[in-house]
Amino acid sequence: MDNIGNNNLEKKYNKQVDGQKLLLDIFRLLENIEFESPVKIKTVLKYICTYSEFDRAHIALFSEDDKEFVYADEWLKTGVKLNGFMIEHHNKYSLEHLIDELRKKDYLLLNNIQSSQGYSWIDKELLTSNGIQYFLLLPLKYNNKLIGLMDFYSLKDITDINEDNILLFRAIAHILSNALIRRNMVNALKESENYYRTIFDSTGTAKVIIEKDNIISKANAECESIFGMSKEELIGKKWTDYFNNKNVEHIENRSKTILTSTKYITKYRNQLGKVLTLIINANQIPETESTIITLYDVSELYRVKRALQTISACNMAMIHATNEIELIQTVCDKIIDVGGYHMTWVGYVANDEMRTIYPVAYAGHEGGYLKDINIQVNHPVLGNGPFGRAAKTRKAVIIKSFAEDETFAPWRERAMNIGGRSMIAFPLFIGNEEPFGVLGIGSNQEDVFDDEEVSVLAEMTSDLTYGIMSLRARAERDKNAKQLECNLNKMHTLLNQTVASLSNVVEMRDPYTAGHQRKVAQVSTAIAKELGISDDEAEGIFIAATIHDIGKVKIPSEILNKPGKLTYLEFEIIKGHSQAGYDIVKDTNYPWPIADYILQHHEKIDGSGYPQGLKGEDIILGARIITVADVVEAMAHHRPYRPALGLDKALEEITQNRGIKYDSDVVDACLRVFSNEGFTFED
Questions:
Q1: Does the model's pTM come out above 0.90?
Q2: Based on the domain organization, do 463 and 582 belong to the same domain?
């Protein structure tokens, strides 16, 4: 995954963490709202706006007949001015339509006010005149009854609001609805003689009163959903009969601590076998030995939170994964370790006739479940389970109960033997392609996967698929890169062999200068590196220097090997070797200007060279380097027409003509090569 993909995943993870913190802060803020100031509502609105960069938030409650607003509050960002309220200023007709819409939908969203279709009951002109670009409306419900609304406005386009954010806001709306109901009940009943009794029976939360001996003396109707039994059945029973070490999680010294003010979170298996996550708040009633206990069922919240934490952990795993199987195994581990699920495994679909699904990774309470497991997508029975159907339909498949679902019969016994009770299977696929695998997540409870949790887990599966495809693409790129490197190495070897062969052709015709081109190439390469020229360009200079005299193949041997002084005509023939060399290699597709290097290697910067009489920087740098190397090597070694003059004479020559015949920088680099670097010719 590239840096942009990594940054996107990190941003997404941080946003999810901030959302979880926001939800926890609001829950804590509103927990005891019936005993505190209404200012908390404004604080909640501020928290949400700060998190999502809204400019205004508003909350309102409807009257019993849904004809008017009976309570409203708002938070407005400092410096933002709006021309009057928004939703609450709509007429009776608009309000009726608004209420009808909110009863049918979980939320209403307008992210382009002018072009939005429908919603005729919304005063779009009022929104537009205030510069509103983004409008989000959420219903407030209590016991499935619409009690009000919460709406948000933004003066700018908010691009990062997504389904995860909407899910978060809906959870907040649920918490806020319950808090407002509790507060309104308090306000309405504070002066009533039945205040405490009414609060106890009508808060919407499960409450019990226990006495000193742990006997439950009172329970309200909401207790039934917690305990799985009626309040009448609870009264007279001991509290410790339900909350003891037989439950999912043991609470130490419960019988002692319950009579004092305390609060804790626990898992609890009720009389129907359903496991709940509860927040238990116990407070001793003043001047009595009785304790009132409030039980909050936060199972759904924790399931969604668990799913969000799982997707965050899995996305981080994708950032660091180096291969496909490692990624899949890590994701399986995170689903168990972070998500707290019972078991998970990933199966890949084979390319055989029956499209057999075989395990590639698992985590959790496997217990031999996957040993010799038989799932065949194209089989009428073995392909009708969750994995087979997910692979065929490209849709998530939920098995609510292993015991009752007949499609799961072939695997029922082995699954239930390891404690499994339900599961969900997600297909792994890209675009319109057939699924290449399936991810399964199992639970030790029946019917526990709700829509919101499934939605979050589906997103995690989509991210996993993307991660797998990215790793496959990376592996393919690495494979191609290695093959390309291998091919380039072969081509490079072939090129060097070809160049060496061409150099040998010249030496065969001019044995007195055998090794001259090779030695010029050595010096040229050393000078190029001293000048800071790249390795790639230096290689081109090396190749050109190795065959810089290739044109001499067209010079008669008697002239090349003449021991005495050449005549004018003979020298003119010799001078033609630069052009001849150019003509030989000009049509060869080198990645460097080899032909130009060869053509210009006898040019001098004062224009006294040949064949074109070029001056200064009109001579290509590689040719200027080869010129100096050629002079040094030729003077330092024996020639048919003279003995070797020695290296000192050669260096003296280029020094005296520095800036005249030879490039100053090239000369200086050559001198450093021989003096500082200790360069010597290799035979």
A1: no
A2: no
